[in-house]
Amino acid sequence: MPRLILLRHGQSQWNLENRFTGWVDVDLTDQGEAEATRGGELIARAGFKPDVMFTSVLNRAKRTGAMALEAAGLKDVPVIEDWRLNERHYGGLTGLNKAETAEKHGEEQVKIWRRSYDTPPPPLAPGGEFDFTTDPRYAGQDIPDTESLKITLERVLPYWNSAIAPRLKAGEDVLVTAHGNSLRAIVKHLFDVPDDRIVGVEIPTGNPLDIELDAELKPVSARYLDEDRAQALPALS
């Protein structure tokens, strides 16, 4: 059976500062680096040797993957980067402090923007500090100016189907190092999580989620490798 590990990046500087990060390329904190290393140690202890690692183009995910592979003693694993594994785009909320935003717009509205499945935040205004349209990593791409989790899934799923799933169906083991919401999109797809329940699914930072899949890429088993930091998982069908 093919084996898949999903690894959310370690704590970032803006995680620590409680800011909406999205596509902003912030780095890991010292704690985040420790989480990445710990994730790699757990991967090694579990005997997982991926044939390939997929990651986003954002440094916090790429560095987490690289540090995990190094800690696991896996130096020659091919790495494939793609922006479609980026974090959810937080639109006009990008860079804002979450508590201050709740004070300004009300906790209920911010909760809807953050946790609802299909209601995106206001779009990001063009030409500002966080305008990603001039970033060469996205040249020629029709990139969003805001995203809900639903919209995030709509860009992650085609990439999953075209790039990641074929490797798993070929019998390869795969590591995906990405972000809370891009990984939640994959979890929603794999576990067929209903729209109203995916809002309660959290992916902890730096804790590898080890999933065994059958030939149809349906989960047979799933567990977090660090049991002390595990979150509830969707039920297996």
Automatic annotation (TrEMBL):
Keywords: Gluconeogenesis, Glycolysis, Isomerase. SMART domains: PGAM. Pathway: Carbohydrate degradation; glycolysis; pyruvate from D-glyceraldehyde 3-phosphate: step 3/5. Pfam families: His_Phos_1 (PF00300). It comes from the Bacteria. It catalyses: (2R)-2-phosphoglycerate = (2R)-3-phosphoglycerate. One of its GO terms (biological process) is gluconeogenesis. It is an enzyme of class 5 (isomerase). The active site is at 9 (tele-phosphohistidine intermediate), 87 (proton donor/acceptor). GO terms for molecular function: phosphoglycerate mutase activity. The record marks 179 as: Transition state stabilizer. Substrate binds at residues 8-15, 21-22, 60, 87-90, 98, 114-115, 180-181. InterPro entries: His_Pase_superF_clade-1, His_PPase_superfam, PG/BPGM_mutase_AS, Phosphogly_mut1. Its EC number is 5.4.2.11. Signal peptide: none annotated. Belongs to the phosphoglycerate mutase family. BPG-dependent PGAM subfamily. Homodimer. PANTHER family: PHOSPHOGLYCERATE MUTASE. Catalyzes the interconversion of 2-phosphoglycerate and 3-phosphoglycerate. This is 2,3-bisphosphoglycerate-dependent phosphoglycerate mutase. It comes from Brevundimonas abyssalis TAR-001. The gene is gpmA.
